[in-house]
Amino acid sequence: MSRSEDLYTRAQKHIPGGVNSPVRAFNGVGGTPLFFQKGEGAYVYDEDGKRYIDYVGSWGPMIVGHSHPDVINAVRKQLDFGLSFGAPTEVETTMAEKVCELVPSMDMVRMVNSGTEATMSAIRLSRGYTGRDKIVKFEGCYHGHSDSLLVKAGSGALTLGVPNSPGVPADLAQHTITLQYNDIEEVKSCFAELGDQIACIIVEPVAGNMNCILPVPGFLETLRQVCDESGAVLIFDEVMTGFRVALGGAQEKFKVTPDLTTLGKVIGAGMPVGAFGGKKAIMEYISPLGPVYQAGTLSGNPVAMVAGLAVLNKISEEGFHRELERKTSLLVSGIQAAADELGVSVATVSVGGMFGLFFSNQKQVSTFADVQKCDTEMFKLFFHYMLEEGVYLAPSAFEAGFTSQAHSDEDIEFTIAAAKRAFVKLAK
Ligand code: PLP
């Protein structure tokens, strides 16, 4: 029995499902989740000492690689001063200044402890600011697990929202309208009918929770337009894309400016951090300036702030994202070429330091319906073949992959060669 198997058996006694977040349980791919002991640069090491090239990066934060010395040293230095005060610290202001500099649509920012908190608070703020209850989201987009956002629509755009988890009150879910990602006409007709009741649109500007789907030309622009016309707040959930698809996030890459932005992952460098911010007129609605309540015992925690700032400084260096993007497209084009050569139906996509790999006959996958048609059985096999090869991919066919500065060209060549060997087995 491997140490991971042993630890998993032990974990299941007192932790539901043996994990503290469901996708870690390997339900999407089968088998036993790996327990990790150490991360260094592009690699993670499991409890049996096996090394893997890591394309999960703690689900996004590790954009400079694991245990980067700048991050570790910043944390070590802060430890001598204390862990938390529940009072303002200078580093919070430095962090706010840095975030607002990198994401110019943000005049003000409030730190929180997770992406879920960021999106939940941005929704409350939008509702408080507009005095409206309805919100619009898109099927296949994930914005954390707060009640209003754990909802999918029934068939048809304007049917009332139905919760997709027990425990979410139907009374609340009915205020969430779920539309199809990349369906411009559906957005327009929804706003033509209900625009004056809608508080906000929340969207992943690149959808990274149904694999990796790019916005079609005109989609984000349409969201901006209907929000301008109706007075709804446009929220870009950049928890995943922020600082990753470009230094200024997806809004910089696709040149569409939201009213509010939510951040997480990279901003905390692996510490529990999220943030939301945007236009001053909206942000001034939050307590203590305004009537919309929002708070947190550990928000802006100094250890987390110094870690996050170290990463934001690192990624601000000239050429960081150019190099990250080069490596990501090297990876993706190599995998695509290997699949094509062996006649395995695969579609790939990459943007900045984020990529998608679909077992699909379609060359371009752009909707949730397209994603659902992908061959998840092929993905499961591929995942385990790659794991044997020492490559750690997200244990689900519906997650984006992440690269880091620490991934060398040799790591990428190794990964492509491993994928080729896996495709040979799949082609049989
Ligand atoms: N928003 C997006 C786009 C995400 O990808 C996630 C998490 O994966 C969240 C929000 C929730 O963030 P957290 O898991 O930190 O609560």
TrEMBL record:
It is found in: Cytoplasm. GO terms for biological process: protoporphyrinogen IX biosynthetic process. GO terms for cellular component: cytoplasm. GO terms for molecular function: glutamate-1-semialdehyde 2,1-aminomutase activity; pyridoxal phosphate binding; transaminase activity. The modification N6-(pyridoxal phosphate)lysine is found at K265. Keywords: Cytoplasm, Isomerase, Porphyrin biosynthesis, Pyridoxal phosphate. Its cofactor is pyridoxal 5'-phosphate. Its main location: cytoplasm. InterPro entries: 4pyrrol_synth_GluAld_NH2Trfase, Aminotrans_3, Aminotrans_3_PPA_site, PyrdxlP-dep_Trfase, PyrdxlP-dep_Trfase_major, PyrdxlP-dep_Trfase_small. It is an enzyme of class 5 (isomerase). Its EC number is 5.4.3.8. Belongs to the class-III pyridoxal-phosphate-dependent aminotransferase family. HemL subfamily. Homodimer. HAMAP family: HemL_aminotrans_3. This is Glutamate-1-semialdehyde 2,1-aminomutase. It comes from Marinomonas piezotolerans. The gene is hemL.
